[in-house]
UniProtKB/TrEMBL annotation:
Protein name: M20/M25/M40 family metallo-hydrolase
Signal peptide range in chain numbering: 1-22
Recorded superkingdom: Bacteria
Keywords of the record: Signal
Organism, scientific name: Niabella yanshanensis
Gene3D superfamilies attached to this UniProt entry: Zn peptidases
Residue ranges constituting the Peptidase M28 domain according to the UniProt record: 201-398
PANTHER family associated with the record: METALLOPEPTIDASE M28 FAMILY MEMBER, PEPTIDASE M28 DOMAIN-CONTAINING PROTEIN
Pfam families from the UniProt entry: Peptidase_M28 (PF04389)
InterPro entries: M28_fam, Peptidase_M28
Amino acid sequence: MTFKMPLTLLTGLAITSATAFAQQIKVADVTQTINVLASDEMKGRAVYSPEIDKAADFIASEFKKAGPQPLAGNSYLQSFVMVSATQQSISARSAGKEIDPKNIVVLTSKPEFNYSPDDVQVETIKAGDNLFSKAFELAGSSKSLLIQVDESFSDRFSRLVFLKRNFFKTDADIVFVLGNTDPQKLTIKATHSIKENKLANVVGILPGKKLKGEYVIFSGHYDHIGIGKPENGDSIYNGANDDASGITAIIELARHYKAQNNNERSLIFAAFTAEEVGGFGSQYFSKQMSPEKVIAMFNIEMIGTDSKWGKNSAYITGYEKTDMGDILQKNLEGSAFTFHPDPYPDQQLFYRSDNATLARLGVPAHTISTSKMDSEPNYHKASDEVKTLDLVNMTEIIKSIAISAQTIVSGKDTPTRVDTRDLK
């Protein structure tokens, strides 16, 4: 019979030093931080609201106190601009033949758009592809694209106009056209009313020592869905579990590793914006990184409730795609804590959260969660409040992440990469 001690009593020689400091990750600190992020004063942290700016300022102040320095410049805010475009007019012809406007979708930051075949890259969405997933991926391109969409999607093509609601401000123009069209014989003219909206991730870094040019990322998203339909008189969707719990974790991890002061690899702590409206914060962040230099990504999403296995457990999305999960579990030998493979494979969570952009580029980027995706009672509801969370267990999860990541942080272990041929 093997006796497994609680994480707080763990004394295994291999992780004694990490464990000793992990005890400084305390329930009281976790409680204080998450109560601010999920307070009614934050009004659900909706994108483009004054309150999300307030949340960003709070996270930046916590990073400053914890010890990480800004990733770039003097500010923790990694700012970018999103565009929403309302089409006023459009006309299109191919080889002199008029194209039904319903079969064209143009994403442009320009009030007046005229298609030019010069410097346009042609892409296709083939029959059998996931139309909306593929379109969403291509819409984030920094290059001008003409995307030919197979006619098998004719009944759904018009729904691609949802992409106009939010896309990155860029000089690139993205054109979707239903069917095969000769790029050289295509003419399109369109006018739009353009609205620009500013957003910002909050990002800090603890530079490494011997392996300064190698990066380990700890991340979560700090936006939620704001004010919604009242439930029992409450219209504030606080997002305590989703994902104030993840942001609380990265703040605690920043304190942990700063106090240890022995990270050989550089550690990046990223609080992403706009996850709830399309994952734009993590997409923008990922474009600033060289994927080959990112050794691992720990994306932390909804860890405030017990997992389907109960306390002292969590799951890792895409567990089978790299050996990162095995490394983490090896570092927890002797403890009561267990990391499990994702029990909800049908939901394809590996490619649905903020880890996805870097994972698609081969980075061992995984999301750690405890959320019961088939039965989480407060998910995207006004009832997602701190009082519904198990903060003691959540603190143990944060400790387990700190301890299990230690050999990756130190440079002793390097996870295998995601096989990009396996993309879905």
